[in-house]
Amino acid sequence: MSSEILKENNHYLKACILYEVLQKKPISDSYRNFCATVGQDAISYPDFEFWFYRFYDGNRDFDYDRSADPEPKTLMDMPVELMYKIVGNLDSVERNVLGSVNRPMQGFAVFLPPVFEEMEITFHRMNFLAWKLNNNPKICGGYEKLEKFINIPGLQVKHLCLITIGSQVNFPDRLPVSIKTKSVDITAGTINQMIELLSIAKPGKLKSIRLSNRRAESFEMDSFPRIFDTEQFKQAKHVDIVGYVTDYNLSLFNFRHLNSFKLRIRAPAPGELFRVLRDDIPLYYKPFETCEIIIVDSEDRFKVRSIGEALGEEVPFGPSKTITHRHRIPKSKDYLEFEIKDEGRSCRIKIVKVC
């Protein structure tokens, strides 16, 4: 029979579907063969699927009345919140594909802004920069492409990594600014470079800052207050300084608005520092949850013991590798737990607020 005759009779169409079932091929292959034989517009895929599996299960009644069956659910019958969640888990390329194969979903794919897990920008000499997305080894291009990319409406990057190569980096006249990101990881040779890079991350959404000094072992503490004055630092919740500082009083005083911080000190840090932290954290570090301080002091072989004794902990005679001290916060059921570990060339002190 011609395809036009088959289309005019539902029993003929169902016989064709039964024929495909009897060939014992996957439904996708069966549907393609059915469309090639009868025509693309003969029957929709959901209808073909219904009859295919009905025949497959042994029900061969061509006159079955489907009007009494509940209306089948489609993709668009899902709750709106679930549809946004599905689209939100796709990157921009996957969203474009989804929108091209499913027109109703296109609105959701276009409405949600593009979100990337990670973006890395590396600044070299002579105003040259390179950038890539989601740790893809393929470099995305120079400044002009980057400028167009960051101007995509609603663009968001979960983690932003900014790097300078060399101490004589000349930044472009127009730095890419206001990139929305939750966390930023900066590796630079000077404090001034760090401040330039920190300005790229938009304040407000930014919660976590990591600063790494590439060029020297110790930070230039004279310039550090400029970092503390940035809106990015003032609004952050978590800060990790990878590199050694010498003026710990200056640093810790500016960390009192943070939930957590990590600091490395290359200097003799007196036990008084930890008594001050013990007493000041409940009073001034209101959002405090935890901090970690690493001290490198090759001249003090008994740093663990001296810190423990300064906190009022009774330390047994002999070498001590780990000391735990708990301090009850006045007028509260909460307490601070100090864990002090000897790590050979360094001493690690972790302070946690326990509720």
UniProtKB/TrEMBL annotation:
Coiled coil: none annotated. One of its GO terms (biological process) is innate immune response. Residues 11-59 form the Mos1 transposase HTH domain. Residues 178-298 form the DUF38 domain. It comes from the Eukaryota. InterPro entries: DUF38/FTH_CAE_spp (IPR002900), FB224 (IPR040161), Mos1_HTH (IPR041426). This is F-box domain-containing protein. It comes from Caenorhabditis nigoni.
